[in-house]
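USER:
Before I trust my own judgement here, I would like a peer's view. Write it directly below this note and I will take it from there.

ASSISTANT:
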Amino acid sequence: MNSSKLQEIMERKATIIKNPEIFEIDQTPDELVERRETSVLFEEVAIFLKYRSVHNLLLTGHPGTGKTVTANSIQEQIPKFSDEINSFLVNCKDLTPNEVLYNLNPTMPKNLSFNDAMFYFLKSLEKDTLVFLDEIDKGRNMGDLLYKLSRPKEICKDCDKKINLVLISNNPVWEDVLDAYIRSSLQLTRVIFSPYNKKDLIRIMKKRISKGFMDPAAISEEQLEKIADFVAEQRTGDSRVAILALKYSARLAERRLKDKIEEEDIQKAITESIRDIESFRIVSLSNQDLFALYSCFTTNPNLDALYDTCNNIAREITENKVKLPSKSTFFRELLYLETQGLIRKEIVVNTEGKTPHKETVIRPNVDKGIVDNEINLRIGKISENKRS
C-alpha cells in the first residue's frame, strides 16, 4: 500500500519546477543582481587583480544580502581574468586556524603545529593569492591566523607572493573585538551590503524563475510583489526567504497537480521558508548568543535587567558548565541577534512606580519552539563534553 503510494507520487509529472537546484539558497546564479555594493566590491578586488596591491576587505551586512553569493561569483570568474592568481574560498564556521590552512592547501600534513602549518602554507604559494574567508566571525580563534596571513613575508622569508584577504561576516561588530595590532595589520576596508529592497528581490526571483520554472507565468506579478513586500518589510530583505518561498509555493501547487501557483500557496510557502531560515540561523549561533536569545523570551525583557536574566538562565540550564560573557560582550551579542533578524528593540512606557518612563525592551522575532529544541540539544552536548 505505502510503496504503491510512493510510486504514484514519484510518477507524477512536474508541472512547474524545471530545475530544483536553481532554488537552493547556496546556488550561485549565472548573473548577479547588480547594485552599488557589488560594484564597490568589484572595484576593490580589481585593485589586487590588476595592480597586485594588497587591499584587505571586510564584507558585512544583514544575512541574505548577497555577500557570499557575490564572493562565490568573483572567485569563479578569476581564472577568466588571470592565470597568475590563485583564489580560495573557505567557510570558517567552527574551524580552527589549522583547519582553515588545511582547506587552503589539502596536501599539508595534518599533525603540524599552527606555526609550522602557516610556514608550510606560505612556502607552498606559487602565485599571488586572493583568499575569501566566509563566516570569519564563526571561526575559532582566528586572530593569529589573520595577522600572519596579512604579513606573509615577515612570517616566511621564502614567500615572495602577496595575499589579499576578503573576510565575510554577518556580525557588524566582529572587527571591534579583534586586538588592535591585528586590526592595524589587516587595515580592512568595509563593504557594507544593505538589505535588498522590493525591486531587488523581484529581480532576484525573476532570474531564478527564468532558469528554474517551466513557464514563468506559473506565478503572477502580484504574487511576486506580495513575497517581495513581505521580505523587504518583515525580514530585512533576506533574499533566501524569497527564494525558498518560490520553491515551496511551486511544490505546494505541484502537489495538487496544478501548473499555476495560488494565493494560499504563497502564504504557506512564506511561513515555511521563514521557519527554515530561522532554524538555520539559530543552529549557527554560539552558545552565548543562543542563551542571550533565550533570555529574550522572559516576561520582562528589560534591556537593563536582561544581562542578569541571561546569566541566571545560563547557570541554571547548564549547571555552570559554560563561561558567561561580560556585560559589554552581552550587548554585542544582542546587536548581532538584531542584525540576524532574531530579535527587535521596542520603546515602551513603563507605568510601574511613581513616574511613568520610557524604556527599551527586547522582543524575540523567532519561534520559541525552535529555540527550545536547540537549547535542549546544546545542553546535551555541553554535558557530554564536561564528562569527557
In short: The CA atoms of residues 292 and 334 lie 7 Å apart. Residues 263-283 form the longest helix (21 residues).
